[in-house]
Specification:
- By secondary structure, the protein is α+β, with helices and mostly antiparallel strands.
- The chain has 27 helices and 17 strands.
- The strands form 4 sheets. Strands 1-7-6-5-4-2-3 form a 7-stranded mixed beta sheet, sandwiched between helices.
- Helix 11 links the parallel strand 4 and strand 5.
- The longest helix has about 50 residues.
- The N and C termini lie far apart (about 85 Å).
- InterPro entries: GrpII_AminoAcid_Decarb, PDXDC1-like_2nd, PDXDC1-like_3rd, PyrdxlP-dep_de-COase, PyrdxlP-dep_Trfase, PyrdxlP-dep_Trfase_major.
- This is Pyridoxal-dependent decarboxylase domain-containing protein 1.
Length: about 775
């Protein structure tokens, strides 16, 4: 059986496909094997089908990861499920003995490993199912007539279940749904606000809540404490909570990832106190990297009848066989293997924590620096006027709006940082979460991911290196955000959009002439302009990334500017966006008005040509229009007529005569078209210099500004060097006709001017030499 299972897993994990799938052909519905289509299929074909369904179409998602690598201990856990199905075919007596042995051995081993003496175990697939059974057991223990009277007993004295505000989301609602209790039976205990961790339950406030419930005739039933909260892994003060529960007769249940450290030699006092509670829930599958292994709830109770009624124990062999995968895996790993995996995960957390202490602009949220298996960190930037030792605490004189913008900006940057780190170091198993007090943070919890992903110490070092490489981008982007906003607000035609979820420099929208600012609906004309603007910006090949999307809380298009890795010239960036968008709008208007302009021009040309034909008839006379007579008259007395026509100037939008073209054999210049605006109106760049970068001051190379200024100064000097005589020669006199050519200065006069101004001529030569 084990051999067949290994061969099946090897086949499923293999990347080979069928020939028809390699050729790109999609399997038709009739090609899919099934029980209703002819004869049955062999095992290889069925496993091949399962493999295709598991991996899906990888052409659509080339970066999708395959099934995680399952080690030998994982194969043992999977073998347990197949072995359980085989064992269930034994006769009842042998099945009863075997399942009882498996259940008792697994329970004893878990109680010894995790220091929970004289406990019982309940194995379940859903992690929260064990707590629901424990609540049912507590109800039967406190309400003696519950089996007979049922809900009437609870109605007269309502039970109260206390949950921490830092508990995992949806836990209270799940308990009420499973137990059939109304939501007022839940009491959420706030965390500390003045002293201690902000993720620990406030014990003093809990005691006050218990006293208030007793005075109102309620029954405090159960308290759920955390040995490692779902968010940041902080542990409640379980010792004080246990004393409080013993005082008021409340059932104490503990859950959390930090319970795994009970298997180690050194355990913190707060986690060690969990061994004295009434029940606890363990998840050895993620801790040890075991797939399809059930969770375990350990509890202490002396009445087997109540545990049977509550569903914690069962006489069915199938329920007892749930422990078989864990029974096989624990024997395969042994105590040393279990301790080694948990210890390795804690060392990874300690290694990351020590490394992040040396990194600037990274705040680590750790409860116990010596034994915290969960590391939560975030990027922060010190605000102006804040104390660096307080980790980005805003000054009292800062406006609330500025503090809010800073908080949203840091949240977006931390979300971007977490996503980047997850892609760069996938073996780290990072998660991004939103905390109420701190905001967006990145969590590293190797106890739940390291065994399955195979996280090593080198992965932690690579993670720290990636964090350090991303810090300049984060700090530079955060510093440029306010400058970008000011530049956009000072530029006509641009609107700055505050999008708290965008991690880049900012979001900008171009307001065209027909833009309805009060409307939130989509704008087709604006979408067209922004699409062209995005294409132009991406063609500049800068280090910035540009994207187009709907505006925050609106349907209008905007340009989203990404992260900045270098010192960006924000003024040049904003100017380029404004000029390019204005150019696109003008070109679109020209195209839209072209049809109307051409139509009117053709109508006007037809009218003028008809009028010219009538004038020609009057000049030539009627006799010349008669076919035979007109030819004779034209032979004796030819008429000198000029060819007349009309040309349409699209730039000026006017009609012009073609007589000048036929007489002088040249095209008329008409009205000089205005210069077309260009998106590259910024400063000319040197070779290899990318757009939107600030020029380095004090460099040996000639800067763009200096080159342009030298050329402008040289033109001014050439104009002044000509003197008043040169100016008078260039300007035509009023008596001259417009068509007369402009007199040019002779070489002799030019030499005289140079002789009169030798200093200016020498200065021009020096300027030309410097430019060369």
């Amino acid at each position: 059986m084990g051999k067949n299972l290994k061969e099946a897993m090897k086949m499923l994990e293999n990347s080979q496909r069928r020939p028809e799938e390699e050729s790109g052909r999609k399997p038709a519905p009739e090609d899919i094997p099934g029980p209703l289509q002819g004869s049955g299929q062999d095992m290889v074909s069925i496993l091949q089908l399962v493999q295709n369904l598991m991996h899906g179409d990888e052409s659509e998602e080339p970066l999708s990861t395959r099934v995680q690598s399952i080690g030998e201990q994982g194969h043992m856990a999977l073998l347990g499920h197949s072995l359980g199905a085989y064992i269930s075919t034994l006769d009842k007596e042998k099945l009863r003995k075997l399942t009882t042995r498996i259940l008792s051995d697994t329970t004893l081993w878990l109680c010894r490993i995790f220091r929970y003496e004289n406990g019982c175990a309940y194995f379940h697939e859903e992690e929260r199912e064990g707590l629901a059974k424990i609540c049912r057991l507590a109800i039967h223990s406190r309400y003696e007539d519950f089996v007979v009277d049922g809900f009437n007993v609870l109605y007269n004295k309502k039970p109260v279940i206390y949950l921490s505000a830092a508990a995992r989301p949806g836990l209270g609602q799940y308990l009420c749904n499973q137990l059939g209790l109304p939501f007022p039976c839940l009491c959420r205990v706030p965390c500390n606000t003045m002293f201690g961790s902000q993720h620990q339950m406030d014990v003093a406030f809990l005691e006050k809540l218990i006293k208030d419930d007793i005075e109102r005739g309620r029954l405090p039933l159960l308290l759920v404490a955390n040995a490692g909260t779902a968010a940041v892994g902080h542990t409640d003060k379980i010792g004080r909570l246990r004393e409080l529960c013993e005082q008021y007769g409340i059932w104490l249940h503990v859950e959390g990832v930090n319970l795994a450290t009970l298997a180690l030699g050194y355990v913190s006092s707060s986690v060690l106190a969990a061994t004295k509670c009434h029940s606890m829930t363990l998840t050895p599958g993620p801790w040890l990297g075991l797939p399809a292994v059930p969770a375990v709830t350990l509890y202490k109770h002396d009445d087997p009848a109540l545990t049977l009624v509550a569903g914690l124990t069962s006489n069915k062999p199938a329920d007892k066989l749930r422990a078989l995968p864990l029974w096989l895996s624990l024997q395969y790993l042994g105590l040393d293997g279990i301790v080694e995996r948990i210890k390795h995960a804690c060392q990874l957390s300690q290694r990351l924590q020590e490394s992040l202490k040396k990194v600037d602009h990274i705040k680590v949220l750790v409860e116990d620096e010596l034994s915290s298996p969960v590391v939560v960190f975030r990027f922060f930037q010190e605000l102006p006027g804040s104390d660096p030792g307080l980790k980005a605490v805003p000054a009292p004189n800062m406006a609330p709006s500025a503090v809010g913008r800073e908080r949203h900006s840091c949240d977006a940057l931390n979300r971007w940082l977490g996503e980047q780190l997850k892609q760069l170091v996938p073996a780290s198993g990072l998660t991004v979460m939103d905390l109420e007090a701190e905001g967006m943070c990145v969590r590293f919890s190797p106890l739940t991911t390291a065994a399955a992903l195979g996280t090593r110490g080198e992965d932690v070092d690579q993670l720290v290196t990636c964090i350090e490489s991303k810090l300049p981008v984060l700090t530079c982007t955060l510093q440029l955000r306010e400058e970008f906003k000011q530049e956009v607000e000072a530029t006509a035609g641009l609107l700055h959009v505050d999008d708290p979820n965008w991690p880049g420099i900012g979001v900008v929208r171009y307001e065209h002439a027909n833009d309805d600012k009060s409307s939130l609906k989509s704008d087709p004309e604006g979408d067209k302009i922004h699409a062209g603007l995005l294409k132009k910006l991406n063609e500049l090949e800068s280090d910035l990334t540009f994207k187009m999307g709907p505006e925050y809380r609106s349907m209008k298009s905007c340009i989203y500017i990404g992260m900045a890795s270098d010192d960006v010239d924000v003024s040049e960036l904003v100017e380029t966006i404004a000029v390019t968008a204005r150019e696109i709008e003008e070109n679109s208007r020209l195209l839209e008005n072209m049809t109307e302009v051409v139509r009117k021009g053709i109508q006007e040309a037809q009218v003028q040509l008809q009028k010219a034909n009538e004038e020609r008839l009057l000049e030539e006379g009627v006799l010349r229009q008669i076919p035979v007579v007109g030819s004779v008259l034209n032979w004796f007395s030819p008429v000198q007529t000029s060819q007349k026509g009309r040309t349409f100037n699209l730039t000026a939008g006017s009609l012009e005569s073609t007589e000048h073209t036929y007489v002088y054999k040249v095209q008329g210049t008409g009205v000089t078209p205005p210069p077309t605006p260009s998106g590259a109106r910024g400063k000319p760049r040197l070779p290899g210099h990318k757009p939107f970068r600030r020029s380095v001051r004090g460099s040996d190379t000639v800067s763009d500004t200096s080159s342009v200024s030298h050329i402008e100064d040289l033109e001014k000097m050439e104009h002044l060097a000509g003197g008043p005589e040169h100016s008078s020669l260039e300007s035509p006199s009023p008596e001259q006709s417009p068509e007369a050519p402009t007199p040019q200065a002779s070489p002799t006069e030019a030499l005289q001017n140079k002789a009169q101004h030798p200093e200016d001529h020498h200065l021009q030569v020096e300027e030309l030499e410097s430019l060369r």
